[in-house]
Amino acid sequence: MSLFPTETRAARPAFPATWIHAHCDGGSRGNPGPAGFGALITDTHGATLAELSEYLGIRTNNFAEYSGLLAVLDWALKNGHTRLKVVSDSELMVKQIQGKYKVNSPDLKPLWQEARNRIARLDAFEISHALRHKNKEADALANQAMDRGMGRGGGGVTVDSLPLRPKIAANPVSAAAGGMSSATSPQASRPAAPQMLRGFTKDGAVHLLGGATLPDGIFVKVIRE
Fold first, then answer.
1. What is residue 20's predicted lDDT score, i.e. its pLDDT?
2. Over the stretch 53-104, which tens digit does the pLDDT of each residue have?
3. Is-contact 35 58, C-beta < 8 A?
4. pLDDT of residue 224 exceeding 90
5. CA distances (Å), origin 13, targets 16, 17, 126
6. What is the pLDDT of residue 206?
7. Superfamily of domain 20-149
8. Helix (H, G, I), strand (E, B), or coil: what is residue 37?
9. Nearest partner of 212 among 161, 150, 140, judged by Cα
10. Of 155, 68, 163, nearest in space to 118 by CA
11. Where in the chain is the domain with CATH 3.30.420.10?
């Protein structure tokens, strides 16, 4: 069943009234962490019309999923396609768009509202949920976006550090990067607990996310994700 049908509008590009299809996906390495989305848009015969892939900075999985949907809607509207079918492996987003789930998150509500606004400008719209293995192309594009944003020539890493000195603390992810503060300063009154920091490798060096730093002489364990 089509969602949010609207009246026919004039002055649209002269495309045949046929459906286009999109698979979209979003992901975050850390949640929140380096995030990106990907989408594959095809015509009714399966021919590729567009591949979308964008790095989003430090965001959550759900933010990335909604960003992929919004990018698909934007592409369809800008290119005069008014009948759109979307497949996503995010059950939460799909059921929120379908009106089956409430949107309680203050971070997602503006994205959900913008998606509804764009959907209302289409003649017909459908969205459905699929398992991840049926969304492989979009998943690959999303991972490409995250790799680009992380500057991956090598693999991403998790830095598992030994306890930090009491006065050394990782900086929180900056608000300018769109992230959430996830690190807290160890209390000077007792030994610091081990911290799990995240980062990536580039040119043979480890770069920690969010401006985090480690004191000299500390041992770390690098794990490829």
1. 98
2. 999 999 999 999 999 999 999 999 999 999 999 999 999 999 999 999 999 9
3. yes
4. no
5. 9, 11, 21
6. 65
7. Ribonuclease H-like superfamily/Ribonuclease H (3.30.420.10)
8. strand
9. 161
10. 68
11. 20-149
Three-state SS at 27: strand
Two tokens, residue 4: 């949010």
SS3 content of the chain, % helix, strand, coil (to 5): 25, 30, 45
97 is written with which tokens? 């768009």
User: What pLDDT, on a 0 to 100 scale, did the predictor assign at position 157?
Assistant: 37
Q: In this structure, what token pair is assigned to residue 175?
A: 């608000």
Q: How many CB atoms lie within 10 A of CB 4?
A: 16
Exposure of 93 by Cβ count < 10 A (0-12 exposed, 13-18 middle, 19+ buried)? buried
Token pair in block for residue 92: 């939460």
- Mean per-residue pLDDT over the chain, rounded: 76
Surface-to-core class of residue 199, CB atoms within 10 Å of its CB (0-12 exposed, 13-18 middle, 19+ buried): buried
